[in-house]
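ARCHIVE CARD
CATEGORY: sequence design from structure
SOURCE FIELD: tokenized fold
FIELD CONTENT:
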């Protein structure tokens, strides 16, 4: 019985510290030090929320760059159903899915040359990727330039300015944040 009281006290103390005080302090510090990130890294255009820098979105109009396909359930880029398709590499349904995506990519981008970049055919493990390779963005340039009546050079400069590089070259590949790039295209139109 003599050991029960200190054990209960420590349990309550640690419960309050780790379940209340610590989360509150880290949340307040996050809001104070990183308000944009703690608020969801929202993308704004003319004061209107247009999405998040962290999540991909479904862009279907020809005037927008398209991101990686999403394998989330029911609707594309559904953050409540994040996950991959879980189809095995030898599954015929996966082969059909790739063939359908390839056909759609070619139909949507008739003026694109070369092979369709793999990241426009494969979904990520989360199904919510916001980025594509610079090659995938350049492959879509003819379609976007034609739809927006802009020169391919203007689009290429925009892609180059929105390409992000890893801190160390061995730690990842360059990528283009699709929601940010599409927002920049909309801002060009507004000028």
């Amino acid at each position: 019985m003599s050991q029960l009281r200190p054990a209960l006290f420590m349990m309550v103390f640690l419960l309050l510290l780790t379940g209340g005080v610590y989360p509150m302090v880290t949340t307040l510090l996050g809001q104070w030090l990183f308000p944009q990130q703690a608020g969801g890294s929202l993308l704004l255009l003319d004061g209107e929320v247009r999405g998040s820098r962290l999540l991909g979105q479904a862009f279907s109009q020809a005037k927008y760059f398209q991101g990686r396909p999403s394998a989330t359930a029911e609707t594309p880029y559904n953050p409540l159903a994040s996950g991959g398709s879980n189809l095995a590499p030898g599954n015929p349904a996966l082969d059909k899915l790739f063939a359908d995506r390839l056909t759609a990519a070619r139909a949507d981008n008739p003026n694109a040359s070369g092979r369709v970049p793999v990241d426009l055919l494969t979904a990520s493990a989360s199904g919510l990727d916001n980025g594509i390779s610079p090659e995938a963005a350049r492959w879509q340039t003819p379609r976007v330039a034609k739809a927006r009546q802009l020169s391919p050079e203007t689009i290429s400069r925009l892609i180059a300015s929105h390409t992000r590089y890893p801190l160390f070259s061995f730690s990842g590949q360059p990528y283009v944040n699709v929601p940010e790039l599409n927002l920049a295209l909309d801002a060009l139109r507004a000028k």
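CARD ANNOTATION: Strands lie at 42-45, 48-52, 131-132, 163-164, 175-177. The longest helix spans residues 4-33.
SHELF: design records, drawer C
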